[in-house]
Design a protein that fits this description.
- By secondary structure, the protein is α/β, with parallel strands linked by helices.
- It has a single domain (29-348), classed as Rossmann fold, CATH 3.40.50.
- Helix content is 43%, strand content 12%.
- The chain contains 15 helices and eight strands.
- Strand 1 and strand 2 (43-49) form a beta hairpin.
Length: 377
């Protein structure tokens, strides 16, 4: 970074970021908008992508997606797939999966409270993973009040799904026919060292972080100015903790950077303490009788792959996939792998046939138990 600062002017770096922003259509997909209202009045923004007839036959605009997911997109959608995003991201973090599923199955993408296009939580209102679970229930009630569901969550979104199950087990029993937990954790996040020495991380948690988060909350504009002034440094940090490979597409890396940059620093501070309190291992039993995909990047330093192994240990019939070389944002870094395994999950959940509904019986959903295994192995 120091060499770059000496050899590349700030204006040129700004032009490079703008060029990367326009290099790809990432985050541009939009659906039918809607708003759900949380119990505290927070407005939760969501979008729905409905099933559309395959245009132009197998080679039409929806043909590739139909071939990938093995069904005719003209059939009525038997399942609504609800995607929940992670901390400091938005629904647009599912860009590649949204593109692959478009017109094939009914999907709902939503922004967690205080993220993206959703409203800010009331001032002074504490954030909890349980609250996020109730937010997801409000979105389901508004966007998918009937029919079977597949729940897909990344990182904080996976924790949100677990919180939903802990508080509304009857919803899981009656309507959920499949679930995917991507780069997430069921608890013990206070033990994660983020690739740093354990002793140093413990000191950081006790001394530096509390003061930093307090500053973010009370001197928000000052910290925002500091973040903008050191954007180059933060870009390197974001890339390191988002991706496992060094040669990730620069446009994708910049897209992830933009998502995280857009999260206000006081939101970052308000949400972080909730992860230390998160413990939803027992809630996983609600998914014991439905197809479940547990997927993580091998080099994830935010929610390490061991946490996904713990989730799979509670669900012996789940498909466990550890993606070699991938980091925390595995759905952006290796989208094809994620989409292929989601395709198998939807197949196992009955997403191919029209008119399925309600809870399905146990299935031998064991594909991908080995690290890095491919679909159907």
């Amino acid at each position: 970074m120091a060499v770059e600062r000496l050899t590349v002017g700030r204006g040129m770096r700004r032009k490079a970021r703008l060029a990367l922003d326009s290099a790809g259509p990432y985050g541009t997909l939009r659906g039918t908008p809607g708003t759900a209202v949380a119990e505290d009045g927070t407005e939760l923004y969501y979008e729905v992508d409905e099933v559309e007839p395959t245009a132009g036959g197998p080679n039409g605009p929806n043909g590739a997606a139909a071939r990938l997911f093995g069904r005719r997109s003209s059939a009525p959608p038997p399942v609504t797939v609800v995607f929940s995003h992670g901390y400091c991201l938005t629904q647009d973090s599912w860009h590649f999966q949204r593109a692959a599923l478009r017109g094939v199955v009914r999907t709902v993408f939503w922004d967690q409270r205080s993220h993206g296009r959703s409203g800010r939580a009331p001032a002074g209102s504490p954030v909890s993973i349980d609250q996020l679970g109730r937010d997801l229930k409000a979105v389901i009630d508004a966007a998918a009040p009937e029919g079977p569901l597949v729940l897909v969550g990344h990182s904080m979104g996976g924790m949100t799904t677990m919180a939903l199950a802990a508080q509304y087990p009857e919803l899981i029993a009656d309507r959920v026919v499949g679930a995917a937990f991507v780069g997430t954790s069921s608890g013990r996040l206070s033990e994660v060292t983020y690739g740093l020495p354990a002793a140093g991380m413990n000191v950081l948690r006790r001394t530096l972080l509390p003061g930093a988060f307090k500053l973010m909350a009370v001197q928000t504009e000052l910290v925002e100015k500091g973040r903008r002034a050191t954007a180059d440094l933060f870009a390197g940090i974001i890339k390191r903790y988002s991706f496992g490979a060094r040669d990730v597409d620069p446009a994708v890396a910049r897209f992830a950077e933009r998502l995280i940059e857009a999260t206000p620093v006081d939101v970052v501070a308000a949400f972080y303490p909730a992860f230390g309190e998160h413990d939803k291992l027992a809630a996983l039993s609600a998914f014991a009788d439905v197809p479940v995909l547990v997927l993580a990047g091998e080099k994830d330093m935010i929610t390490p792959a061991e946490h996904s192994e713990t989730i799979a240990g509670e669900l012996p019939d789940a498909g466990l996939v550890i993606v070699p070389g991938a980091g925390h944002l595995v759905m952006l870094e290796q989208p094809g792998t994620v989409e292929a395994h989601l395709a198998e999950l939807l197949d196992a959940a009955g997403a191919k046939g029209a008119g399925t509904g309600g809870r399905r019986g146990p299935r031998p959903w064991r594909e991908g138990r080995a690290a890095g295994a491919q679909p159907g192995s």
